[in-house]
Amino acid sequence: MGVMRLGFVEVRVTDLDAAVSHYEGSLGLEVTGRAEGKVFLKGWDEWDHHSVVLQPGGVGLVKMAFKVESDQDLEDFEKRIAAWGLKVSRVHRGEDFAVGEGISTELPSGHVVQLYREMETLGVGTGTENPDPWPDGQRGMAVPRLDHVLVTAEDPHLFSRFFTEVLDFHISERVVPQAGSDQILGAWLFRTNTPHDVAVIPGPNGKLHHFAFYLDNWYEVLRAGDIMAKTGIPVDVGPTRHGITRGQTIYFFDPSGNRNEVFSGGYITYPDFPCITWTADQLGKGIFYIQRELNDRFTTVLT
Amino acid sequence: MGVMRLGFVEVRVTDLDAAVSHYEGSLGLEVTGRAEGKVFLKGWDEWDHHSVVLQPGGVGLVKMAFKVESDQDLEDFEKRIAAWGLKVSRVHRGEDFAVGEGISTELPSGHVVQLYREMETLGVGTGTENPDPWPDGQRGMAVPRLDHVLVTAEDPHLFSRFFTEVLDFHISERVVPQAGSDQILGAWLFRTNTPHDVAVIPGPNGKLHHFAFYLDNWYEVLRAGDIMAKTGIPVDVGPTRHGITRGQTIYFFDPSGNRNEVFSGGYITYPDFPCITWTADQLGKGIFYIQRELNDRFTTVLT
Amino acid sequence: MGVMRLGFVEVRVTDLDAAVSHYEGSLGLEVTGRAEGKVFLKGWDEWDHHSVVLQPGGVGLVKMAFKVESDQDLEDFEKRIAAWGLKVSRVHRGEDFAVGEGISTELPSGHVVQLYREMETLGVGTGTENPDPWPDGQRGMAVPRLDHVLVTAEDPHLFSRFFTEVLDFHISERVVPQAGSDQILGAWLFRTNTPHDVAVIPGPNGKLHHFAFYLDNWYEVLRAGDIMAKTGIPVDVGPTRHGITRGQTIYFFDPSGNRNEVFSGGYITYPDFPCITWTADQLGKGIFYIQRELNDRFTTVLT
Amino acid sequence: MGVMRLGFVEVRVTDLDAAVSHYEGSLGLEVTGRAEGKVFLKGWDEWDHHSVVLQPGGVGLVKMAFKVESDQDLEDFEKRIAAWGLKVSRVHRGEDFAVGEGISTELPSGHVVQLYREMETLGVGTGTENPDPWPDGQRGMAVPRLDHVLVTAEDPHLFSRFFTEVLDFHISERVVPQAGSDQILGAWLFRTNTPHDVAVIPGPNGKLHHFAFYLDNWYEVLRAGDIMAKTGIPVDVGPTRHGITRGQTIYFFDPSGNRNEVFSGGYITYPDFPCITWTADQLGKGIFYIQRELNDRFTTVLT
């Protein structure tokens, strides 16, 4: 019961055609629908209708939407969000293309969080009867699924409190000013077994740092980097390893300047996972483990 | 709330010293305690006191133990097990070395399932402050953690019903006699995000097919195979890919003849994961995807 | 100066269309020509016109052809072959499609060896100006090139003597009956830096054991195995590691029953490479390092 | 006949103990001797006495030494070097620790090139009788062998001419000012089957850019990067892919500031390899394929 996963991100793009070419052609997502001027896409290993929504006009995150397990969850969270002091509204079936009944709230950080229980189902690329491990006809990086989203907030501590206190997330890793401090400068938050579904670092309210797609292994990360070079995608950082999550990564940009990530590896978490603490002086190693330093872009380029 | 994971397996071994040499020296687990004639071990990425218990005398599975999230879970499951018609007993703190209060039941298949909420904590090999991604001084295959257990039952359908109806597991994959049938000949069951925590195939009651340790990737599976050759460990099948779970695998045997597995990869699951169905005629491909046939050992060598 | 590499293998196939479908569609070679009833193919990273020639009618190896560096080499080898006691004949430009002047001989084992200096050039799939590391539009296993050929001979020692004494090959690894013996039961022979260009094991004269295509890494070997399962290619053994060469491998069969291999890894050799010796009792480990045993097919299925 | 390989590099280091700690402890070379104030090291898969010589005092390359196949080669190259207009001197057996008779010359670029035919042999870490694919007790990155050296020269064209005209090297890749030009700004030179044994880019005479050690695959490159982070080794660039050679790489620095590389992958070459040409405007992609840009350090930090 509760939140199952980051279901979809809705992002603004300055040029919809260029964005579709990027997400469909280079990342290899499938366009599953066009409606209300938006384009809906999913990875080959996702069964729901979409995990990415592209909306023309500007850049940045319109909303992050989490799928919950039951209608009861929606009712419970509606009350808990209100009890936590935030305005919460219903998103009725039909308001969001292919998405069922849900609720929506704006966090103190200005980010919009939507919860929903139901989405039209399309099925995975390999089918569910005697399936092969991967489908024929893959395109580009052939990312199987959305993995997580990282945003900035003026008060990351408060942001993480919403997810732990209201949505029952757990913190896998956190950044504190120095050893012994409990002041959260950054937090990586998970619901069940992944290193993170959502994360937050300090920065302006309402901004998107990146959203990430999963890849199976380090060789696929290399291949993704090759495809970025072949297709002229601007690379931010990587391939490299994160200290935080242990994952392997490349950060890169979509044609509108929104940061994407391909991400592989990482440990498994559970509710009793012993929270990892990074002191701010070691954050370079935490973010880019091999290089041990942040570039300027990492903290300044946001959408 | 509910079951978090397969916490530990307790297995019988004919020669305790040889078994310790195998699990500690070749698999790379750490011996964390010896008590009541038993040896307790954990992987370097596990924080609880143990995930494997070796008990001298014979072969096979003494019990599989699942860790739950809260004391309330224990009370709830105690009632639900009884309501499902099974005898359930308390395992009091102190009865099991390093394990807190729990409950125990014997399934119709003769397998003993224990649930517990608390275990003494030792911490992971990399620590929780500014950690490296892996610890120095790794031994052998350096398996980070226990992954799952597979058993046989005369009535696999009933076995899987216990886990779905009582313990709130979900079925990721199942084997049916032919397309359209709902009779479960085999089931792979998960609680949260992994392909399986426990699985069942047809066979004698009470028997163990194998228990598996996770490895990060296909190169580590190769390296594990190299170590099996170097140290004379009998290999059953692999390296290869499973159709079921998509994981990469080697099956091999401990010195007593209990089957082990190293397992990497596999997809992510959620409660709304669309259950995959294998028809019995394709089971060879389901188990060993590349070879597409079972060897005799797979179905006959059990402990 | 001297032999540069195994240039091409010419093999008989019972069904030419099925063979083309296999080598072009599943292995991913490119059909570069059809002439004299034969089909010519090359890998994407080969610049010469072909590395595989398919000839309808039967199974097995018609000839193995090595490319030499200079016309002088042809003249020298012509004399050295004759001096070694074998008949040698000229293969004139135009006799072999797309191949220049050459010489041919039949070894005591009945295998035909051709040497040539020139072949029509088509260029590699990535081009030679500011190239990408791999071409777009890859098919199937996308093997970049032919790697080596393994044959059987009643007198493997004599076979290897031809290659070392006449063609200036070196032995990377050899099998002897027992420690201390110099009787060669099997030999892996190289000219410059690879583990082997040609190899021989005991068996009937004139037979082909397999010819192999290179893959970049162990993940590509897994992917090749997946494609074998998807397209119904019969797998002989693997994925696994060879003790001999250290390479990673899958043996499989073309539709006519000729054995193919995909091969990755392996060490680098030089003329001063210290020859490795396997005693016959360890040959199982030498061939299939992880399993440490040969299956019957390995020594009995030949074409 | 001719040059077989880059046999060893002799480099100056400011702190010999720190250097030994780096090359032995972190890269995993074996110290095979100490003499004349120098330290000699080899990789586990090298059979000759050493491939790296550390000499206290300063930084940079003392000499690069190539092993030839025969004494006749030494005599021939002695004449050819002189005929090309360079002074050539004998290095008598015993002058260089563990090295046999040789010749030495100083190139117009100021680099010292030594050729030798013989070196004391120690054997590889896995032995030559029924060997395992890798030895037990590996340390750090466990690099198996030296791979290549890259230097700078004011006249790279002349540098490459020495290697092709006198030592019979071939050019795998070259950089030219623009398409159609034959002026070599940079050259990657090989003798037999590797992408390069030695390479040159524009820069001051006599300087070392880096020398490189081979790793088996992209996962080992990641692991090497992890070890750099664990042991505090300064990383220059990587992990990433080279466009030139297609290899995978990390550049990093030894404690004296000499640049090292770990390198895996890359294509196979032959004397008829079709030379690849990079135009200067694409050199960023040629060097760091994924990022497509050089950092300042790459061209300015030399020793």
What does it look like?
The structure is a homotetramer of 303-residue chains. With 303 residues, chain A is of the alpha/beta class. Chain A has six helices and 17 strands. Chain A has helices spanning 16-26, 71-83, 156-166, 218-231, 283-287, 296-300; strands at 3-13, 30-35, 38-42, 52-56, 60-68, 88-91, 102-106, 112-116, 145-153, 170-176, 186-190, 198-202, 207-214, 235-241, 248-253, 259-264, 276-279. In chain A, the strands form two sheets. In chain A, strands 14-15-16-13-9-12-11-10-17 form a nine-stranded mixed β-sheet. In chain A, strands 2-3-4-1-5-8-7-6 form an eight-stranded mixed β-sheet, covered by helices on one side. The longest helix of chain A has 14 residues, at 218-231. Chain A starts with a strand and ends with a helix. At the C-D interface, strand 17 of C face strand 17 of D.
